[in-house]
Design a protein that fits this description.
mainly alpha; 37 helices
């Protein structure tokens, strides 16, 4: 409204509101001038879509939005025929008669708080909105009075209704006919119509808006249950959780109503089954064909979220998620950072989930892009690349020879000294897994030993130190060829120093929780593995820190005491 003065904002918005508030008692028809005024106000308020509920604009606007009963009455009224006099002079050819009404409804749901959502849901708004979409999809003419922006506002309103609780969630999303109806708006035919729409909210931006609105709706349950123990977290990745949480009422419900979230958890398997029945994974993948990747951040984030659930992951793969051409497109260096990160997360999660997916990943021909990402300027990308490679070595040695062929091991070792702490942590994880299954890569990994030792002695996170200690354990797991380097490069001494540093905590019964979170157990496990080899046993016996291990046999933590006993026993062997 071109002013920051609250009084002027109220005055100007009130002028628009007067045109439809004066018609509140008229319920037999939806007057064009009323629809036009609603559209104008809704369009202005939509510019404030990214603001919080504490915004002065939202506080000013809420009293001006029609009451719940009035909104319901307007939406129930059948749109007047196109040839009725006066219609075209009030609304442009590119707008629907109900656009403004659903736009203001969305604002009330978004800014009115839980009470407003409950009142609107009790008035039957969710089913009314679903019915409107059904007419929109099935009719060749605009019998429902919605343009593309009206459809987006309708979908967004349904999404906000989901925060009313489990009953509304089950009524809307735990019904295959509703999911099928919503996904019809992602059909090739419908998206092509939106793309060819020459008015406002059409074209490429219109396709992006409707796809994103539907993703917000479909992703709602996954966002709502993100903090429930035992389920994949929406914030597990550096960005997919963030993108799916932005503006989503599902992100608030977890804090406000944990019982509702638990109800969502109970229905998750049913919901996933409905997504599979309707074919949502394939539908979402096809949306990539209608959008430029610069618009696809939320779309890829949702694909990454679905990949966390095995049944959806299997169906995504069946529909060509890891098609080489598609993956080259997703991993192109010119893509937005968010697309790159989620594409890497998809690969990482699939590799982590099961070795049966290794063949799919191999056919996607990803090692060269992953190699390039190890030296990417963005530390988050480097960390994700290390994580993906680590998971590709998690279950078997399937990729070992390919890592050697593409000369990736050397770059992974360099990442142990990366300036970014997350990258260092995942580099240690990847190196450990590259050494776990056999000794094929031991020669390539030899140079990692001093790097891993340095991490044990520096002020790193405990998880990074644990990964480094585990990697050293794996470097002696399958043969003794690296034992001399383990000793001469200071790795064995670094493990003993770490054990000594944490020994006081381990001997204190009141510090049991701190011990469980420390790298001490992994370091002791690593020393026990090294005691398999005579050179390491000899070095341990002669070390000035060896008595620390003897004291740890008295630890109140049984695992630590057992490891210490094993080390002392093995070290006494010739």
């Amino acid at each position: 409204m071109l002013t920051t003065n609250p009084k002027k904002q109220l005055s100007r918005l009130s002028v628009l509101a007067h045109h439809f508030s004066s018609e509140e008692r008229t319920k037999s028809s939806f007057k064009p001038h009323c629809a036009s005024a609603m559209l104008a106000l809704a369009s202005i308020l939509s510019l404030e879509s990214s603001i919080s509920t504490e915004s002065s604009i939202s506080e000013i606007a809420m009293p001006l939005i029609p009451r719940t009963a009035t909104v319901c009455d307007h939406l129930k009224i059948q749109p007047i025929e196109e040839n009725e006099a006066g219609l075209n002079c009030m609304l442009s050819y590119w707008h629907g008669l109900r656009d403004g009404c659903v736009g203001l409804l969305e604002c009330r749901l978004k800014w009115g708080g839980p009470l407003a959502v409950q009142q609107l849901c009790a008035s039957g708004i969710p089913q009314l909105l679903i019915n409107m979409l059904a007419v929109e999809v099935e009719s060749e003419k605009d019998l429902v009075g919605l343009s593309p922006v009206g459809v987006v506002w309708t979908i967004s309103s349904i999404c906000h209704c989901l925060s009313a609780g489990a009953l509304v969630f089950r009524h809307i999303l735990v019904k295959s006919e509703h999911i099928r109806l919503i996904c019809d708006l992602l059909s090739d035919i419908y998206l092509k119509l939106v793309r060819s729409w020459r008015g406002p909210f059409g074209g490429k931006d219109g396709v992006r808006d409707i796809v994103n609105a539907i993703i917000d709706l479909l992703a709602f349950p996954f966002v709502a249950i993100q903090n429930v123990p035992g389920l994949p977290s929406a914030t597990a990745s550096v960005n997919s959780g963030f993108l799916l949480n932005v503006g989503s009422p599902g992100g608030r419900i977890c804090m406000e109503d944990i019982e509702t979230v638990r109800a969502f958890e109970t229905n998750t398997k049913i919901y996933i089954q409905i997504l599979l029945e309707v074919g949502v994974p394939g539908i979402i993948l096809r949306c990539l064909e209608h959008m430029e990747l610069k618009y696809c951040s939320k779309l890829i984030a949702f694909i990454a979220k679905m990949t966390c659930h095995r049944p959806l992951a299997v169906e995504l793969l069946r529909k060509g998620l890891l098609d080489p051409f598609r993956m080259r497109r997703l991993l192109d260096s010119s893509n937005p950072r968010e697309v790159t990160l989620d594409a890497l997360m998809i690969v990482s999660d699939l590799a982590r989930m099961d070795k049966i997916f290794y063949e799919n990943i191999s056919r996607a021909d990803l090692l060269e892009p992953l190699k390039e990402f190890l030296t990417h300027e963005d530390p988050n990308v480097r960390a994700k690349a290390c994580s993906a490679l680590g998971n590709m070595c998690r279950h078997s040695s399937y990729f070992y020879s390919s890592l050697a062929t593409h000369r990736i091991i050397s770059l992974l070792i360099d990442r142990c000294a990366d300036p970014d702490k997350r990258t260092r942590k995942f580099a240690c994880f990847a190196i450990g897994n590259a050494a776990y299954h056999n000794d094929v890569l031991y020669e390539d990994l030899r140079r990692s030993i001093p790097q891993l030792a340095n991490l044990l002695l520096s002020s790193e996170e405990d998880k990074t130190k644990a990964n480094a200690a585990g990697a050293l354990s794996n470097l002696v797991r399958n043969s003794k060829k690296l034992c001399e380097d383990i000793i001469s490069k200071g790795a064995l001494q670094a493990l003993l120093k770490l054990v000594a540093d944490y020994s006081m905590v381990a001997l204190n019964p009141s510090k049991r929780d701190a011990v469980s979170e420390s790298p001490l157990k992994i370091a002791l496990f690593s020393l026990a593995k090294m005691c398999t080899h005579p050179p390491c046993r000899q070095y341990l016996r002669s070390s000035e820190l060896f008595p620390v291990l003897a004291r740890l046999r008295q630890s109140p933590e049984s695992t630590i005491a057992n490891y210490a006993n094993v080390i002392i026993s093995k070290a006494s062997e010739p």
